[in-house]
Amino acid sequence: MRKWSRVLADAKLRTKFLLSFAVIILITVLMISGINYWVSVGAIKRNSAEFSHYLIGQIGINLDKLTSDVEEMAFQQFRSSSLSEKLSEKPVKQADVYVRDTFINDFLSDLLFNEDYFLSVFIIDSSGKSYSIQRKALVNYNRELTERLDLRQIQDMRGRALWFRGDNDTLYMARALYDIATNKYVGIIAIGLESDYLGAIVTNVHNLMDGDVLILNEDNRLFVSSEERAGVGEYYLDERLYMSDTGKSDFEYDGRRYIASVLSTVYDKWKIVQIIDVGRLTRGTESLKYWTIGTLLVSLLIAFLMAAFMSKSITQSIRILLQRMTHFSLDFQHQAIVPKSRDEVGLLTAKFNSMAEKINDLFHSVYSEKMLKQKAEYRTLQFEYKALQAQMNPHFLYNTLEAVYSMAKLKGEDEIGEMVYLLGTLLRESIGRKGDTVTLGEELGFIRGYLAIHKIIYGDRIELVYEVDETLTACRVPKFILQPLVENAVVHGIEEKPGQALIRVGCRREGGDAVLEVSDNGVGMDAETVDRLLAPERYGTPDGTNKHTNVGIISVHKRIRILYGDGYGLTIASAVGEGTTVRVRLPANEEDGPGDEAQKS
């Protein structure tokens, strides 16, 4: 997200204008189209739900009438016959039992053939004896009825009918019978009906609304369905969604959305459920969706064309101003821009013209002078280094020659030869090395030869310690950078202080910088002397004491700052009587420095 924000922030104004117009049009069209679409779909759902509620209400009315007709017919047959008396009898003689059974079977036969949709009739007297008759001998309706019938439940319903569905799609009505005179329980009657007797009710509604219709009995079991009990209807029943308090539910099944309406009849005898597929319900809104997409595409095209034209006219002056700014930053040559308008861009152009003229004047008067001064100072330091490199310290040469002379008399030719060899090497290296920079390894080699001569001169009075990070030996450093520091350590660490002298030369890496150190245990310096050594311009002309080494140290410090900046150079840590440590900080660079490029050219 941050990456895209950065890309957008860096984009050109023309692109920003273009995107802004496009986004505004896109959001507006999407909001209008989306609201229209959802309002339309919501209205369709709402009207369909109301119509569905009305339809299932009519189903409930028809269902109550048809089932009540069956219940009333069975009761009227029972009341108009002597079946109540026969069921109440407890015959003992075989002849009386035969007469009673014959009467009951005749009643069942009359009742069965009273209506064409009756499939079976079943009676159980108070003693548990059952009587039955059925139309189709191949289907054992009465066995299924016996397995499904709960006598205790029917007795507890006190004359109300219990309706349920069999496995062979037969519909059953069962109710308890009571003696008319004594209101005493005498048995149970059950009637099996064809499923088409009630199925036509839900089939017509299913064809009208293109939705599944389910009828549940008072035990919330499926009684009649417009389709086979599978798929969404089975899911609805298994999840008990019909128990919703609002009578409406919205659910998802197999990746499709459905709405369901539930209506309960009086005494919760029936629950009528209609399940409607939202996708089928709203399939007429596809044209609205296509119109929305088409309008969106056309609007975006118009928005892009308008944005391209307007952004071009707005940003044209800005592009000209930007080109002139770029040209001015390269060669500081400015050609005045004529503003095409007096808007914010025109005012900005006028201000830039004025600013460019002033910068041009300042550049020629200040920057040029500064560059000339810096070049002159750099050349002066170069001359000082050349002179310092060409003429070795007379004090050092005098001591060396005197030592050669004395040793020639006392010790023979070996050591004299060594000193002469080392001195010749130093002179060859100091004169023969070209360019302004060398590798740190070459500079350290020069210092080792320089100190080796002092080691021969002073013998055991001097101890030399080297602490070198070998990974830095390939770094490029200004030539002749350590010799003045080492010479200063010899003068103040050996010549001005009696006893054992220690000189340590080292280098280490600190981040991306190389730190070179030269330390001694000589007489040291106070803070004012250190400050005078690094900033002599604040104290005037330095005194004549060790002027050669002072000039060398100052030149090293200034040269490093000119080459690498104020963050680099020398720092001196010293205490009187304890010694001095000089640190040189410069970049750990393995490439040629600025001086070398100038030398090559």
TrEMBL record:
**Which EC numbers characterise this protein's activity in its record?**
2.7.13.3
Q: Which domain of life is it from?
A: Bacteria
Q: Name one GO molecular function term.
A: kinase activity
Q: Where in the cell is it found?
A: Cell membrane
By its UniProt entry, which SUPFAM superfamilies does this protein fall under? ATPase domain of HSP90 chaperone/DNA topoisomerase II/histidine kinase
Spell out the PANTHER family in the cross-references.
SENSOR HISTIDINE KINASE YPDA (PTHR34220), SENSOR PROTEIN KINASE HPTS (PTHR34220:SF11)
Name used for this protein in its record: histidine kinase
Organism for this UniProt entry: Paenibacillus artemisiicola
